[in-house]
Design brief:
With 296 residues, the protein is an alpha/beta fold. The chain has two domains: 167 residues, P-loop containing nucleotide triphosphate hydrolases (Rossmann fold, 3-Layer(aba) Sandwich), CATH 3.40.50.300; 78 residues. Helices cover 50% and strands 9% of the residues. It is built from 13 helices and five strands. A five-stranded parallel β-sheet has the order 2-3-4-1-5, with helices on both faces. Helix 6 links the parallel strand 3 and strand 4. Helix 1 runs antiparallel to helix 11. It is elongated and about 60 Å long. It starts with 19 loop residues before the first helix and ends with a helix. The relative contact order is 0.15. Pfam families: TniB.
Length: 296
């Protein structure tokens, strides 16, 4: 078995000797892929922590399509920071709630700060509660995941959210990080006032090329299959790329499902045929009328 494991990373090889369920559990576990965009994003986030105090803090936008790894980039950064500074948490992740207005936005932050939410319509009380918590906890970076959820209300609601982001920079020296779809970039850049406060870190779809092939090689090395699959082979790499539509989340999902299927079948290697057997439907086609009709 060891002789057949040269394609695997050293720390992955011992899993070949585990039972089937343990190997599958390992394959299913979330894994960090330190590609160039992720590494650049972490560098930019680290700069927000290291900056000098400011009354007009600079923020970041991590913008890109759904299922392209934006949340994992931010969560990884937050966890790494907490490991290095457990005594003083400076980075907090906020899951932006669905719903327009400051009530929902305040509730999102209070939940992230582990505070009771209460009545979302009592804005004055929520603002006082938030001010109290921010003055005590002294966060340096607030990361708002799925920030596009806060942009679906009336213009006055959106402006109130933006006013809050400006205020926490001025009053509490907090840098906001906004994660979401392209609508985030559109709204921020609609006015010079907000555009000047946020730098853009794009997390675009992958293009077919050497970097993408390297991604497949790194994935193959992390999956405990006894035989080499040669995922970066032209035919196989193209098939995975077409099905994933260049979204890293979809690439990982496809390869993970195929790896599990090959363990269960005993073939121990991913092939174009095993990818096809998944019957994976690309994200853009999941709302198609043909697919819907097939369900009736």
């Amino acid at each position: 078995m060891v002789a057949m494991a040269d394609h695997l990373l050293e720390h992955v090889r011992p899993y070949l000797h585990r039972d089937q369920q343990e190997r599958i559990a390992y394959i299913r576990a979330p894994r960090w892929i330190g590609h160039h965009v992720a590494q650049d994003s972490h560098r930019r986030l680290a700069e927000l922590l290291e900056r000098p105090p400011s009354l007009r803090t600079q923020g970041l936008m991590l913008v890109g399509p759904y299922a392209n790894g934006k949340t994992m980039i931010a969560e990884r950064f937050a966890v790494e920071h907490l490991k290095t500074s457990p005594e003083q948490q400076k980075v907090w992740m906020v899951q932006t709630r669905e719903g327009a207005g400051l009530g929902h936005f305040y509730a999102s932050i209070l939940q992230a700060l582990r505070a009771p939410g209460g009545d979302i319509w009592d804005l004055r009380r929520k603002a006082e509660q938030l001010d109290h918590l921010l003055s005590i906890l002294k966060p340096r970076v607030l990361i708002f995941d799925e920030f596009h959820n806060a942009l679906r209300g009336r213009a006055c609601d959106v402006e109130a959210v933006f006013a809050f982001l400006r205020r926490i920079g001025r009053q509490y020296d907090i840098s906001p990080v906004l994660i979401g779809e392209v609508a985030v970039c559109d709204f921020i850049n609609a006015t010079s006032e907000m555009a000047s406060r946020f730098d853009l870190v794009a997390v675009p779809r992958w293009q077919y090329g050497e970097t993408y092939l390297m991604l497949l090689d790194s994935l193959e090395g992390a999956l405990p299959l006894a035989k080499s699959s040669d995922l970066s082979n032209e035919a196989l790499a193209r098939r995975i790329f077409d099905l994933s539509e260049g979204l890293i989340g979809e690439v990982v999902t496809i390869v993970t499902k195929a790896a599990i299927a090959t363990i269960r079948s005993g073939t121990e290697r991913i092939s174009k045929a095993s990818i096809d057997e998944l019957r994976h439907v690309p994200l853009s086609q999941r709302r198609s009328s043909a697919l819907r009709e097939s369900l009736l």
